[in-house]
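Hey L., structure's done. Input below.
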Amino acid sequence: MITEILDSSPKGIARAGELLRAGGLVAIPTETVYGLAANALDAAAVRKIFQAKGRPGDNPLIVHITEAGQWAPLVSSLPKKAIELAERFWPGPLTIILPKSEQVPYETSGGLDTVAVRCPSHPAARAVIEAAGVPLAAPSANLSGRPSPTTFAHTRAYLEGRVDALLNGGSCRVGVESTVVSLCGDVPRLLRPGGVTAAELREVLGSLEVDPAVTGGLRPGERAESPGMKYKHYAPRARIEIVDGSPEEFIEYVNSLGNTPGTCALCFDETEKYVKIPAVTYGSRYDRAAQARELFEALHRLDGLGAHRALAQMPGRAGVGLAVYNRLMRAAAFQVTTLPGPMVVGLTGSSGAGKSTAAEGLVRRGFRLIDCDRLTRREDVYDSECIEALARAFGQDVAPGGRLDRRKLAGRAFRDAGSVKLLGELTFPAITRAVRRELCGMDGPVLLDAPTLFESGLDSICRRILAVTAPEEVRIRRVMARDGLDEAEALARFSAQHPEEYYIQRADLAVDNGGDVVMDTELDRICAELKGDCR
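Output:
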């Protein structure tokens, strides 16, 4: 088959629409990944998608439209919650599943009585749908089971010679497929995570169940209700093995294997310089949107390196991170190596968020606690070399007789940002050594309550990070009561600290402590998830 190469000019868009109306296949860009489009209402055209991709026929497709008014003919009912979701997230990376109308052929729905519909935001995708004049079924434009394409080059490598045309629309902004939510049961269910997060969905829906297949495979005989649920997906040629450990543990494990030909690391940006084997990165540990954008590109780069085995650093599951985790788990066919040793959970959050309350609750539920604030007050933490350095930096009278006067030291070290930074540079090594000594002999889940978790580098020994959050007005009230400050003083303290979003972005899990105490149900949820990770 000769494949036409089109651009996103009016001429290229018009030609794509013409081919689609005639029952052809055209690969088009969307904001998520490239899709392989056909007329969703033409059963014969839809069958060509399955043939071109080598896709199993019971794997349903997503129907793409350009406005909510085109939705009603495709479904047999349109509940209020669906309309509210569309008003909030369309156009955008959200797919909504509802009972289908007779107009939608079973080829499109994968044999189900439901249909998945979304309204993309990419201007080229929207223009092609308008030019075709019909809704378009468009799964990812890859060969079945391979990494989804987020660039035109990847799409061309997969499909040239297999389809009628490829439309070049540049790189995709989101980088992972759309979020899929089903409204066909009593409670909405998240079937596939994507660019719209579970938290964002709950803001509209209230309650939301996360289908077990999001983090695991379907049970034998269970039918896939959404794309991306049933089969091993997104896999490069290399065998992916996910390694569950802290950044330090991951580095030590990978380097212990030696430079074996064909073995690569698939890791975060921060880890790459410490790894002694060929490495491919997929974004920062603390930028999950970047991870989503870069994951499939990274899997393609593994193929370019000729990798046979890739050791992948475990991503977090907060926000869009759940989508990254979902795709990587499927690429690995759920193969996870959990490294030995305690699962250290870093506890973080803004002043007044209620970290101590959360820590107390988790300790009651079986976690062991290392309280860095308490640990830093112990005299045995600081050796003579550290004390001498502090005296040189802040005045000999902060260490009379070789013993720290903590009150005097604090008065000088916290007077400005430069002094705070210097204090950290001098004391963090000693504190880190003390934490490591505390960890010796521990197993199971360990909670590391460290106010300067990131500044000290202690985050590198944490497998998970838990952020405690609370509204600013609640945090101000708590700090005023706890430390005897007025409101202006409390606000001044907050302005010198990281904003709450800083901690949320870096956390794998978050617990809201907006009330007087952390809700038991929230702590039970956190505890169950963290202990479930202690394999």
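Residues 417-439 form the longest helix (23 residues). The chain has a mean pLDDT of 91.

-- N.
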